[in-house]
Amino acid sequence: MTNELTPKFNPTEVEAGRYEKWLEADVFKPSGNPDAEPYSIVIPPPNVTGKLHLGHAWDTTLQDIIIRQKRMQGFDTLWLPGMDHAGIATQAKVAARLAEDGILPQDLGREKFLDKVWEWKDEYATTIKEQWGKMGISVDYSRERFTLDEGLSQAVRKVFVQLYNKGWIYRGEKLINWDPKAMTALSDIEVIHKEIDGAFYHITYQIEGSDEFVEIATTRPETFLGDTAVIVNEKDERYKHLVGKNVILPIINRVIPILTDDHADMEKGTGVVKITPAHDPNDFEVAMRHDLPMINMMNNDGTINENGGKYEGLDRFEARKQIVADLKELGQLVDIKPVRHEVGHSERTGVVVEPRLSTQWFVKMDELAKKAIANQTTEDAVEFYPPRFNDTFMQWMENVHDWVISRQLWWGHQIPAWYNEAGEMYVGEEAPEGEGWTQDEDVLDTWFSSALWPFSTMGWPDENSADFKRYFPTSTLVTGYDIIFFWVSRMIFQSLEFTGKSPFHNVLIHGLIRDEEGRKMSKSLGNGIDPMDVIEKYGADALRWFLSNGSAPGQDVRFSYDKMDAAWNFINKIWNVSRYILMNAEDVSADAVSSALTKVANKTAGNVTDRWILTRLNDTARRVTEQMDKFEFGVAGHILYNFIWDEFANWYLELTKEVMFGEDEAEKDITRAVLLHVLDQVLRLLHPIMPFFTEEIFEKLPNTSGSIVVAEYPKVRPEFNDDKASEGVAMLIELITAVRNIRAEVNTPLSKAVPMLIKSEHADFLNAVSPYISRFTNPSELTIAKDLAVPEQAMSAVVTGAELYLPLAGLINIEEEIARLEKELAKWQKELDLVNKKLGNERFVANAKAEVVQKEKDKLADYQEKFDTVKARIAELKEN
Known about the structure:
Layout: H1 11-15, H2 18-24, E1 38-42, H3 54-72, E2 76-80, E3 82-83, H4 87-99, H5 105-108, H6 110-135, E4 145-146, H7 150-165, E5 169-179, E6 184-186, E7 191-207, E8 213-218, E9 229-232, E10 246-248, E11 255-260, E12 273-275, H8 281-290, H9 316-330, E13 333-346, E14 354-363, H10 366-375, E15 383-385, H11 388-398, E16 403-404, E17 406-407, E18 417-419, E19 425-427, E20 438-439, E21 443-444, H12 446-450, H13 453-456, H14 466-471, E22 474-480, H15 484-499, E23 504-510, E24 513-514, H16 531-538, H17 540-549, E25 557-558, H18 561-585, H19 590-602, H20 608-629, H21 633-660, H22 665-686, H23 691-700, H24 723-745, E26 754-759, H25 763-768, H26 770-777, E27 779-785, E28 795-799, E29 802-806, H27 814-839, H28 842-847, H29 850-879
């Protein structure tokens, strides 16, 4: 049989070679249909420092779900891939690899070192693309970009020069964050504050010309080498007599003044504060107010420089130990008090960051921030999902500092500034003419080029680029909340400045993936999960299902192998359902399916279960599409799961066996056609989330051609809606379930036939579907009537539209049955209370949609009927 599926789903076999076939067929490229609405996404570029992690797998999965669905819905979709050069991280990785062979970057020089980095980039970019393929992401590789491409480099130079010419980029000496390991400046958001064990060192400074001392406290005693003043508060009576005098720095014996400044807090410590302007941001501000000298006492690598006297050449922390020992010997170390405090660490190298005075390039942020803030009140505002992250964005923009953009690296966009021996500086997109010019050695912060990603990848600065005109602004960005400041914010203010538009319409924010205990995954904890290992065991479809259904937008998710098992089981369930259908319907033609569906819709053929499943399919397609449009992938997945597993597989498929094992061939043909149609639509609904196995099964359906990637996404077909069929089969299912529950309570297996009575206003319908009732409940005799005598000794249940009685004399205990019914009565009372509370809420009734309010009213009527019936039954049993 050509359409046969293997008895058991094997993800490795199903996914092998599938991605390459998609690429060969060019199904991921834009349709080019000028009448189609464009929908574009640019991938958040992974850096080329190694393998993809689960967080990036989450990004790409959600974006792929969006783009695959939009492609199937007929949009002209572009998903543009690319990678980030990741300056600090990549340079550090390559330097570490060279160090294994005893080679330092300085041994090679800039150009040869960069050749090694490009080799690294090519190696790891290939790895990343292979991993993308395993994930199944449907990007257009003909448009792939890299942040150091010439086109993107041109955009970077243009942006730099324009901002410089406006006075919004400047070069100056300021206090910045310094990474002594990478030996480069860092921006504020590249510093992670961690709690560590430290100490307050209490040191005395002698007053010049007297035997009096003042006491200061510091967590960094080595910085006293760069002290240029001590301050007290002018209101502090303890020290008024000392203002204007000097103190002598111990060991180095430098004399510095005692000044007054509000920065000195009388209530904090001794009230005397040492000022080290070149190594503390608050001290820097004090120095600016008092025109104090600024002494940098540290080299680029964190060792003490020539300003450190006898400590020159020592590492900063070794210098600390020596200084503390020397102060103790001098008798000027009063006390050491342990403290737990937050200290800044480099986001890239992990070392303690050193605040340090340095000449760097900065972006002046005030005007750029104002524009971004104002834009969020316009029609062009970026929509954040969940909306609370708009507040996160706004708060950061309202409090943003100037952005230090220069990095003391070789890998990256070299700053387009040149200097000559005459002390002149030239800034331009190209090198200046003439001899004697030397380009600035520094490169730009990686995020400077990444901030241009949505439009630089589309051909900007050529605003006549076809892609820029058609696909910019992009439609949706998906990323984690941890890079709102690093990347999202910068893309917004740069795009507004240089294109006049927001870079994207929507930003979907997801959380972090944590381990099963809720801990953040990290190398130190050893709890990281490689997505490729997960794919090797479960397949990409199972991983994608987990990633899309793990949490709501903005929420963290816990990785769990139990959840992966559940995902695999779900796929295997669909696989087995598909196998059953293909075995029974492989020869049904497209015309036969179309004709059968028309007959079912017109009620000239088929049965109530056929009309029910088509109605439920309609409702599922509508609700899934609504939730996907709101980026509620978890809700959409839950709706799909319930329909596929419960309604389609567990109920409709089983109900069809009454027909398939019967003698009516015409009815079998209708059932086969409906089965095929529902399976086809289920695969299309699932495809954006789980592309591999849905394509595998789709190919084997008897009436499909081409790839499911470009197949039409399911739409609601009003002709299939049949509310009566839906309500009727719902009642049928509730009845069958109630019988099974009662049998289980009295330990009466389904194999043992028992009498059954059903009292219902819908007796005609229930008699019509009695073959189903008999097949699934095994009654010895079945009585269905609008009115009938209720047996005294019987188990009972109330379902919507019917009362069920199983006369099981000798098997039931009246008192236990009353107790069971009283629990059921309490359940319905609880439901009534909840609905009444909701309907009693004036705000809910006034603001909710009319259909939502009506749904609650319908629930109220249903629960009330069940409550009254159970209450009456309890009364009957008590009377007897």
